[in-house]
Amino acid sequence: MNASRARFNSAVGFLDLARRAWKRSARLRVGAFLVGVVVFMAVLGPHVAPHPSDGWGVVPRNAAERAGKPPCPEFPFGTDNLGRDVLSRVLVGARLALVQITLVVSVSLALGLLVGVCAAYYKGPVEALLNYVAEVFLALPALVVALALRLALGQGLHIVVASLILSWWPWYARSSYIYARAVVEMEYVLLARLAGVPARTVLFRHVLANVAPPVLVQAITDLGSVLLEASAINFLGIGLPPDAPDWGVIVQNGFRYIVSMPWVSMFPGAFILITALGFSLVGDSLREELDPKMRRRWKLWF
Prior knowledge:
- By secondary structure, this protein is mainly α.
- It has one domain (19-55, 72-294): MetI-like (MetI-like fold, Orthogonal Bundle), CATH 1.10.3720.
- The chain contains 13 helices and no strands.
């Protein structure tokens, strides 16, 4: 672990890092704005949707009259083949999108941190066993895990969340293990262990506290990738049912009509990309502030 990370972990704190990055990086501000728009949609979307029942997948009574309408003042995003308002579907779907990625990343991060830190601290057989388990799960693609769970447990949100957790936690375990290996060799950790400080105290107060911030920054960046994978699972019909208010499901519903009704897939697909881009910009800006050597590596104009 380089000196900049050590200073960050021991003295500055995550909030100070974010404040410095906010002042320095226009990319962070752009990404935060995009994420803020999606969060605003998730909080208020179901309440401000022009046709709330359409948003939850209910087919309207006058479906034949409303089916396939292009964007217009009454339906700004148009309607799908069943006459449902696409704008309402997108607004309601924002909440489900954030729920999915928040659950996946939170659980994966907590599990990965615990496994990685314990493997680095205890070493020996514990280290070998935990690393072996993580390597096994690293070899399992999310789509394969989702398909296996789908065959065993049926459709539902639990399939998407569980399959992605099983695929993502080993990445955080590996990162945590790499950082923790450097931390456990530092003098203050060695002195604490020699002084007889309980292992739990050393593990959580000294090791985990220094490992968590850089892995948390990585997790923020990964939120966009998790959304893309969740949308892909739902697009393929493995996760949520066809009437679910999910962006991936909506894209799949409109895919067969991509020529005659392109707006059905275009708008939810655009919000998937916007959300993924927002989290990527935020995470990369924080990572570059955490490690100045990575700054401006893409030569972006902002």
